[in-house]
Amino acid sequence: MAGMRVQELGREFGLSSKDMLGRVREMGIPAKSHASVLTEDQVRQIREALEPVVKEVVENGEQKTVVVTEKEAEEQKRQAEEERARREAVEKERAAREAERARRAAPASAASAAGTADERAAAKTPPTPSSPFSGLEAQIADAAERARRKAEEDRARARAAAAAQAVAKKQAVEAALRERSGGKKSARPAAAERPAPVAAPAPTAGRAPAGGGNRFESLLSQIEAEKKRISEQGGASKPAGAGRRAASPAAASGKRRRGDQVVPELERGGEDDRYARMAVQVEELQRDKVLADARAAVAAANTHEGEGRRRKRKEKRQAQQRERLEAEAIQKGIDPSLLLDDSVVEVPQGATVQKFAELLAVGPNEVIKRLFMLGNVLTLTQSMNDELIELVADDMGRKVRVVSPEEEFTVVYHDSDDELKPRPPVVTVMGHVDHGKTSLLDAIRDTGVAAGEAGGITQHIGASVVTVGSRKITFIDTPGHEAFTAMRARGAQVTDIIVLVVAADDGVMPQTIEAINHARAANVPIVVAVNKIDKPGANADRVRQELTTYEVVPEEWGGANMFVEVSAKKRLHIDDLLETILLQADVLELRANPDALASGFVIEANLDKGRGPVATVLVQRGTLKPGDVLVAGTSYGRVRALIDPHGAHIDSAIPASPAEVLGLSSVPVAGDEFRVFEDERDARRLAEERALRERLTAQDAKTHTSLTDLFGRIEEGKIADLNLIVKADVQGSIEALRGAFEKMDQSEVRINIVHSAVGGITETDVTLAAASSAIIIGFNVRPMGKAKQQAEKEKVDIRLYRVIYEALEEINAARVGLLSPDIVEEDTGIAEVRDLFKVPKVGTIAGCYLVEGEMGRDDLVRVVRDGTVVFEGTLASMRRFKDDVKSVRAGYECGLGVNGFQDLKVGDTIEGYVKKEVERTE
Ligand SMILES: Nc1nc2c(ncn2[C@@H]2O[C@H](COP(=O)(O)OP(=O)(O)OP(=O)(O)O)[C@@H](O)[C@H]2O)c(=O)[nH]1
User: What highest taxon heads this organism's lineage (predicted)?
Assistant: First the structure.
């Protein structure tokens, strides 16, 4: 049952809706009206409270449910009073009527003196009326009156008896409570004060019906006396022997002492104990209610407080976790929302199908099926690449985040101020070709050696350390921006200062500018070494002047760059340069924590025949020692030996120190980060996962950069360089293109011409393009041999142009994602010229063999000789034997004439093509 209305419950107890509502409210149960629905609990509570005080009484042969409370008892007394008054009035009236009847009957009795016994008997009962009808009426009225009176008397007696019993029981309750409440009170001679014993009213009541009219008087007076006595007694007993009277008898009689709850003898009392039970129950109810309220209040307070505390703690923990995740996400360069979203499942990079299924709690078959639908047939133990992981998850409506091993093992170093110790600067030398980078490094090393390392012969390990007084400077041996960029591309930020070498006789050159750009991109300060000042044409000021254009401004001119004029060849001012580098280092306040597990970058690595994989590492933090377990890229191992740039075995390498490391499992790559692990297993795991990832990346790399997706890739940050292989019919085109690129803004994407040459596009070009993810640009050249097929296979983008302008425009557009719709030249057929015929008035006709496809009469054609397009135009004629035809298919011979081109040669190819506009997909 869902609930019950107040009125329904009232009906159950024989109470009016109003009464029931009052009771419900008294119990502290909120109910607005009689129609309010009570919950099951509330109904149970009300029943428990009311049932003990509900008593079945029999009245006039009918069963009736009566609920009695103290108030009702008083009401009953009041009614008894009223009844007594009414009865007195009735008695009076009856007496008057009797007198009247006697007066009327007097003549009749004289006339029938000799009447029968029946008549006498009749005369005794109803008075004889004056007329036969009036007599009968009087008799009927009399009989009715008597019956009514009798019923009233019975009712009054019953009420009086009930009231008397109630009083007696109340008294018994009082006595019982007094007894239970302690010896002192029970010792009071209360009984002696009582005018009548407890049981007295009952026999009185029992006698009542036997008596006449006055027996009610007597009974009621007894009740009254009893009431008064109880009132007085109750009031007197209250102060517990103090002798004080209660303020009012009603108050005294209506209250109970605390602490007296259960009166077992009364509990057993049956119907007669109604009053007592009621009193006890009311008290119990009140006490229980108060206690329950109190308990509930305490519990609520505790719960709220506890809940509050718990909630606060939970909230704090969650906030901390959120902050930590956010910080981590920012550190790792990922979207924090992915880390914070609980529904995102983290899948390690290169996870197998089985692992993926496990992580997503789905059946492996389901994954395999979806992979199959996506065109990838993978088995349980095969790895999924990032894209597949995301695709399949997306397909399943799940959110995943591919976690790279790097990310998994990413550590955030926090060194306190006192742990940081000054460290030497790490310097890279950059500059234009032949401006003297190598010479300068040699000069510096010589100077350094001369200054500190007696007899030391610097061996090439990728970096060298020079000593200047008590200080050291570490130089990265590989000069030029290629190595610097390659390192940077791998995330290696090893250089603190760049020494920009500018030949004083040559001035600022393209690679000088590139070097400036790289330095700026890496946010590394530049110290300018104006070299070759020994040369006759040297003009250091011109160099200064030119560099200002690129915001490299000498300090003496108010700029931020220190300039030193040197001669690497003559070893002039090398000391000054070193001092200046140290000054710049001072400005940078370079510091590192040497007391930690070592980490840094690989500067160089190679496979030594005798020593196995050898890596030169630059320690950036901590101290590297032999025996350390390190991971460098996909390589890991225990450091078997540490060798310094002088070839000496050392037992530690501190921050900014280069050292050769022996003992690695494989050869790492320059720019790889290295890290010492406490646990060799972790090291192996990270290395293995990285190796796996590399293999997957290699698979992915099949799609090389193309102009179409160039912008997308730049946007995604996947590429920062656009590598080009330029093939042209003449050298001039290449030079013109190179010049044009140099003028282009290369701040977003740097354009590198990886390779350039005159001639058709060869398979070697395609291989090189695939290796360097380059785009092949051809000016008036065509792919030769199998180059085209290979390019298709390797997904190398080949772009063919006729003029430089077209190429520049398209590259520029591609960089900003504004490539116009692609006009694709779709090859139709290729014909080989095998013979030549001179036809009068028509010109040269080429006897051809269709080697590929199907060429149409209206196709555009180009004449290609040694991979170079020698002519482009349309066909003048297409014939098979003597007939003009619309098309010729592969395997057939035909005669082709080219409009406006007579210079056809045997060995040329005539390529047919059509132009088609293709919607861009990006
Ligand atoms: N007169 C003079 N010649 C110098 C000086 N420094 C270098 N050279 C010469 O310039 C030429 C190029 O020097 P390198 O040190 O090889 O220049 P680089 O920048 O390393 O050249 P790449 O490695 O090709 O980029 C050599 O012939 C040097 O001898 C100098 O201070 N004075």
Answer: Bacteria
Which of these, 628, 625, 587, 601, lies nearest to 422 by C-alpha position? 587
With a 6 A CB cut-off, is 432 part of the ligand 1 pocket?
no
Q: Kindly tell me if the per-residue pLDDT of 209 is higher than 50.
A: no
Phi, psi of 47 (to 5 degrees): -60, -45
The reply to whether 704 sits in an annotated binding site is no
37 lines ligand 1 (CB under 6 A): no
pLDDT in tens, 479-516: 666 667 667 666 678 899 999 999 999 999 888 888 88
Tell me what ipTM this predicted complex has.
0.98
| 480 labeled part of a ligand binding site | yes
* Alpha-carbon 536 to chain mean position: 69
Measured from the CB, is residue 478 less than 6 Å from ligand 1? no
In whole angstroms, what is the distance from residue 604 CA to residue 330 CA? 30
> Mutation test of ligand 1: which of 429, 433, 438 has the most ligand atoms closer than 8 Å to its C-beta?
438
Ligand 1: which of 434, 512, 532 to mutate, most ligand atoms within 8 Å of CB? Answer: 434
pLDDT digits (tens, 9 = 90+) for 243-269: 333 333 443 344 444 444 444 444 444
pLDDT number for residue 336: 56
Q: Which domains does the chain have, with CATH numbers?
A: 4-79 (1.10.10), 344-409 (1.10.10), 422-592 (3.40.50.300), 594-704 (2.40.30.10), 705-818 (3.40.50.10050), 822-918 (2.40.30.10)
> CB under 8 Å to 877, separation ≥6 — which residues?
842, 845, 884, 895, 896, 897
State in Å: Cα 501 to ligand 1 middle: 10
H helices of 668-778, where? Answer: 680-700, 707-716, 731-743, 763-772
Residue 586: name the closest of 721, 501, 471 by CA.
471
Measured distance CA(819)–CA(718) in Å, rounded: 19
Written as six digits, the tokens of 630 are 């390190």
Q: Model confidence over 366-389: pLDDT tens digits?
A: 899 888 888 888 888 888 888 889
Position 58: which residue type? Answer: V
Q: What is the pTM of this model?
A: 0.43
Cα distances (Å, whole numbers) of residue 236 to 182, 233, 339, 652: 16, 5, 78, 101
395 annotated as ligand-binding: no
Q: Are 563 and 544 in contact (CB under 8 A)?
A: yes
Residues 18-33 as b or e (16 or more Cβ within 10 Å = b): eebbebbeebebebee
Q: Cβ(434) to ligand 1 under 6 A? A: yes
Q: How confident is the model over 40-49, as a mean pLDDT?
A: 84
The answer to whether the beta carbons of residues 395 and 466 sit under 8 Å apart is no
